[in-house]
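ok trying this again, last paste got cut off
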Amino acid sequence: MMSRKGLGLLVVCLMALCQPLPSRAAGPLITPEEAALPPPKGAVGVDRRGVTRGPKIELVSGSDIASLPTRFQLKFQTFGGATVDLASVKVLYLRTPNVDLTERLKTFLQPAGIDMPDASLPPGEHMLRVDLKDSDGRAGSTSFILKVAR
């Protein structure tokens, strides 16, 4: 038989479990005001190839976006038993000046990557750069262009 105090504690715990989880509602990945900033001179997307033990970053969601909102998804891969240092992840929108998108992506950041289900972006081409380090201090970086249909 459960005591009155134990029953009260059980009810409080059940009520806490039934509360809705905090929202991870997506917002704009890039605002129209940020997209209006001038692009950096001479910037090009880089596809780095070669043998490296540093972490790899892969754009899973694709670079051509036909409908909005869209899923913005990156996959991180580490090697040699290392893990991603989440505090080192930095996402920049390459403009003049650069726009740091890291803070607005933090709620979607996981050790396996970034998964923002309902990202919105203005039409046009948007160049992003992602930098991170693994638990062994090895760096990884990639740049890519997101093309949003007008």
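PB: full thing came through this time. The chain has a mean pLDDT of 84.
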